[in-house]
């Protein structure tokens, strides 16, 4: 690929690392090899951890203004190379190029936000209860941070962790998904150009996710682990991290409901549904998985949604007219097929789509009259499928929305302000979109409840995840 940020290397202690053992990365749209990166092992990961630990003391002592200035410089470089980053992203994960450009902007919003917010890591003075003492608190970075990121947002899921860690005075060892390592390496190249010192940011590429993950979770030099991915893997990492009492942040699986009440603006609901469902071909942790539509407006919503879905073009994300790209791999495609077949077998109707296309593509699909015992009602599909369920009352809709072990994002449409407040309070979810299908924002806390995770990313809450509060007691 003729791209100045495309490197087939890892990045440890300020150096780009090569190795004889490599693994290939495939473009899911073309099924052709995009390139290869080093298949690093546990010993290499240990070197990265050691480098990060060595760099930590100097980085922590670097004035916060300087740390924020360097992160700001990285923000500027990302802006300058937005097109290069978007091209890499589209070719390694398949999302349309226009979506990739939006992700670059979104990813970079965390760099900008935390470059400013890092200057406000305030401590406090505490009134003493007796004479002769003075009490205060300060905030300091937790130490070396391990970040493990997924393939579906190969840049934004990194910056959402790395930006607050760096301004807090932490150093980072990053393990990107093996399907999408090139965005991470591109960011490493820009971090070096920005002047971030060696060892402060390291990228370990590997196919050995279990081995590297265990090392990051159990190595005593790592003080915190931040993971975005499946609930099952998150649970394993939490158990492993418990041995050294690490701080953890977990952004895990979702099963987002999308409720359309009979007083909703149907056209706006359809617009929000398309935005919330088909971004990255439905392969996002906050993608709508279950559409609950109230009886009086069910048929109208289904018709309008089908009309909108019919207009979506499927294909290689580098084509300008494409809105829906491929599934990431054959396993993802198989799950989508299984969910559609199961719903049909249980009585659901295919209103639109429903067929596999050549390669890893699947038609944008609308299923109507889906029964509540279908697999798609309880499992995250991670594909371009709209499953429409019926409901009668507000109480029923809330019960259905909450009938899941997950609670990451939820969405609903209503023009009744009292209902909006009432339903938002009752839905068991870390984030609620009210009359919108998009909730992500660098200045807002991103995270879930129940089995969807622990902790928050973005906002001032996201910065606190990387800070320890130290209490100072002065005696006279």
Automatic annotation (TrEMBL):
Q: Which residues form the active site?
A: 251
Q: Which Pfam families match?
A: Aldedh
Matching entries from SUPFAM superfamilies are given as: ALDH-like (SSF53720)
InterPro entries given for it? Ald_DH/histidinol_DH (IPR016161), Ald_DH_C (IPR016163), Ald_DH_CS_CYS (IPR016160), Ald_DH_CS_GLU (IPR029510), Ald_DH_N (IPR016162), Aldehyde_DH_dom (IPR015590), Aldehyde_DH_Superfamily (IPR050740), Succ_semiAld_DH (IPR010102)
Occurrences of domain Aldehyde dehydrogenase (ranges): 18-471
Question: Which positions are tagged coiled coil?
Answer: none
An example GO BP is: gamma-aminobutyric acid catabolic process
Q: Which UniProt keywords apply?
A: Oxidoreductase
Oxidoreductase among the record's keywords?
yes
Q: Which CDD domains match?
A: ALDH_F5_SSADH_GabD
A GO molecular-function term, please? succinate-semialdehyde dehydrogenase (NAD+) activity
Q: Which family does it belong to?
A: Belongs to the aldehyde dehydrogenase family.
Family matches, as NCBIfam families: SSADH (TIGR01780)
UniProt name for this protein = Succinate-semialdehyde dehydrogenase/glutarate-semialdehyde dehydrogenase
């Amino acid at each position: 690929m003729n791209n100045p940020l495309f490197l087939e290397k890892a990045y440890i202690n300020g150096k780009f690392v090569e190795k004889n053992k490599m693994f290939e990365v495939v473009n899911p749209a073309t099924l052709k090899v995009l390139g290869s990166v080093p298949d690093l092992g546990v010993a290499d990961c240990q070197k990265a951890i050691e480098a990060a630990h060595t760099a930590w003391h100097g980085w922590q002592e670097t004035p916060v203004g300087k740390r924020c200035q360097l992160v700001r410089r990285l923000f500027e470089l990302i802006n300058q190379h937005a097109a290069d980053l978007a091209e890499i992203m589209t070719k390694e994960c398949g999302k349309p190029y226009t979506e990739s450009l939006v992700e670059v902007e979104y990813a970079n919003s965390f760099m900008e936000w935390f470059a400013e917010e890092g200057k406000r890591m305030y401590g406090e003075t505490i009134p003493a209860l007796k004479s002769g003492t003075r009490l205060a608190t300060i905030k300091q970075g937790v130490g070396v941070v391990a970040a493990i990121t997924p393939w579906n947002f190969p840049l934004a899921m990194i910056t959402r962790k790395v930006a607050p860690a760096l301004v807090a005075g932490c150093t980072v060892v990053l393990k990107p998904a093996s399907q999408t390592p090139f965005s991470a390496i591109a960011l490493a190249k820009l971090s070096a150009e920005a002047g971030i010192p060696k060892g402060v940011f390291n990228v370990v590429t590997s196919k050995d996710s279990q081995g590297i993950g265990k090392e990051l979770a159990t190595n005593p030099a790592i003080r915190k682990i931040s993971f975005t991915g499946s609930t099952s893997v998150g649970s394993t990492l939490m158990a492993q991290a418990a041995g050294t009492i690490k701080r953890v942040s977990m952004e895990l699986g979702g099963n987002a409901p999308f409720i359309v009440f009979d007083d909703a603006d149907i056209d706006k609901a359809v617009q929000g549904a398309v935005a919330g469902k088909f971004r990255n071909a439905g392969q996002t942790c906050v993608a709508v998985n279950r559409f609950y539509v109230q009886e009086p407006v069910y048929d109208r919503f289904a018709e309008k949604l089908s009309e909108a879905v019919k207009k979506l073009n499927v294909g290689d994300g580098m084509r300008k007219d494409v809105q829906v790209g491929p599934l990431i791999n054959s396993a993802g495609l198989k799950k989508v097929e299984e969910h559609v077949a199961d719903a049909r077998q249980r009585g659901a109707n295919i209103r639109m789509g429903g067929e596999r296309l050549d390669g890893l593509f699947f038609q944008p699909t609308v299923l109507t009259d889906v029964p509540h015992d279908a697999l798609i009602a309880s499992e995250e599909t991670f594909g371009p499928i709209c499953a429409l369920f019926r409901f009668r009352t507000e109480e029923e809709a809330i019960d259905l929305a909450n009938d899941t072990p997950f609670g990451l994002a939820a969405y609903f449409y209503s023009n009744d302000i009292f209902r909006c407040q009432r339903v938002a309070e009752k839905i068991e979810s870390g984030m609620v979109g009210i009359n919108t299908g998009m909730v992500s924002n660098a200045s807002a806390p991103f995270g879930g409840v129940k089995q969807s995770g622990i902790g928050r990313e973005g906002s001032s809450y996201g910065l606190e995840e990387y800070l320890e509060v130290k209490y100072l007691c002065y005696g006279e």
